[in-house]
Write a structure and sequence with these properties.
The protein folds into two domains: 38 residues; 145 residues, Nitrile hydratase alpha /Thiocyanate hydrolase gamma (Nitrile Hydratase, Chain A), CATH 3.90.330. The chain is built from eleven helices and four strands. It has a two-stranded parallel sheet with strand order 1-4. A two-stranded parallel ribbon has the order 2-3. The radius of gyration is 18 Å and the shape is globular. The two termini are 26 Å apart.
Length: 207
């Protein structure tokens, strides 16, 4: 089974095609504008934010800074929301962020078992698989097997796997390990290595 084959359980009613999702979105948007809950400008602005202004490229700069600045890293692990705010990163769905650090002994992975809670300012919008029941249930039951089978990430038996359940109150991000052989890289170069998946905890950072 591959990631793309993760599908919702049959008893869950979800839109089946992109066209259907788009049609639902248009209907919802029209209704909200008609009822005065939203304006067209606000919808456009939100889309612009999540297309261009927030996303994993911001999370990557946070990780690279933590790798190169031990004092920042300490502040990030103590209070991720405040540390990200220092870098001008924050906002909707990032009010209470927590960073958990991968080490030689511990590998962290993030899920929202209830729905799809996720730290938008540093990671953008969650990927589809993050929202699927298959990921949300199995990553809790057998994280090691799930990481290996679905993501090709083999975590050694000697490393403890910790699963963090994000919620509307607390949203987790993973501080991945800095890969070996990157001692000469600048903060900007390091940021380019950091992927969304490494900050969810389903992949390591590779050079
Ligand atoms: Fe959720």
């Amino acid at each position: 089974m591959t990631r793309s084959e993760i599908t919702p359980s049959p008893d869950v009613t979800v839109p089946r095609s992109e066209a259907e999702i788009a049609a639902r979105m248009k209907a919802l948007e029209a209704l909200m504008i008609e009822k005065g809950i939203m304006t067209t400008e606000a919808v456009d602005r939100l889309a612009e934010i999540y297309e261009n202004e927030v996303g994993p490229q911001l999370g990557a700069t946070v990780v690279a800074k933590a790798w190169t600045d031990p004092e920042f890293k300490a502040r990030l692990l103590a209070n991720a929301t405040d540390a990200c705010a220092e870098m001008g990163i924050g906002g909707l769905q990032g009010e209470d962020m927590v960073a958990v650090e991968n080490t030689d002994d511990v590998h962290n992975v993030v899920v929202c078992t209830l729905c799809s809670c996720y730290p938008w300012p540093v990671l953008g919008l969650p990927p589809n698989w993050y929202k699927q029941p298959a990921y949300r249930s199995r990553i809790v039951r057998e994280p090691r097997a799930m990481l290996r089978d679905e993501f090709g990430h083999d975590v050694p038996e000697s490393v403890e796997v910790r699963v963090w359940d994000s919620s509307a109150e607390l949203r987790y991000m993973v501080l991945p390990q800095r890969p070996p052989g990157t001692e000469d890289k600048s903060e900007a170069e390091l940021a380019e290595l950091v992927t969304r998946d490494s900050m969810i905890g389903v992949a390591p950072v590779r050079v």
